[in-house]
Amino acid sequence: MLDVNGVGYLVAATPSVLRRATTGAEVTVETYLHVREDALQLYGFADAEERELFVHLLTVSGIGPKVALAVVSGSPAAELRKAIAMGDHARFQAIPGIGKKTAERIVLELKEKIGVVTEPALAAVGDGPSLRTILGFCQRLFGSLMSSVRWHVEVHQFRIEARPDVKGLPTPEGLHRDGVDYVLVLLVNRQNIGSGTTTIHGLDRRLLGSFTLTEPCDAALVDDARVFHGVTPVEPVDLDLPAYRDVLVVTFRRAAADASRAR
Are strands 228-231 and 7-9 parallel, antiparallel or unpaired? Predict the structure, then answer.
């Protein structure tokens, strides 16, 4: 049960969420609302990586939210993504309730969607002048919109590949909000890619505008509380050449104590 300002929500959560909750302190939970004709079910995750993998799993034929939650609960999300990229069916078969055929479908259907698994950034990169400049810019901009706030900041690097027979999905969950306050999406590189258009929608999902990040350092700045956003699938221009889209995503979210005071 998740208590939000005195309102209780029943949440099916991963073990990592439950471990945090046992401390009795306030926790931040990434959530996904699964809508059916006869029910609204809320699922909870410790971080955006768990939630993203859960959403990917829902696209696999024959897998519903309960099985997807069992998979995400079975191992750290980074290890499961790596297993998919390496074609390791056995890793999924080791999860209770996941048989051989289901494990094979997960790897087969997600290997092209997950993209390339990237290693954590080297310390020299994380502490380098380029990333410091990016974070400083975000701090000044977002700080001017919401002053006297302590921020929880996350930085993620993504490579989405496209092949002749499989389009790459920059946002496999479709139109979405990231559950933070502000988002910077910075294009690092774009090689032999067609489409990949960013669309911005109001809270009623009405299209407000669209644009395409085409040059290195082109960026999208998103007020996550006010709009939905998504990116159209990417495909290779020349079918004989590698095709990929690299972006850096920086999210700023008010620290739990400040968010609680704001409510």
Answer: unpaired
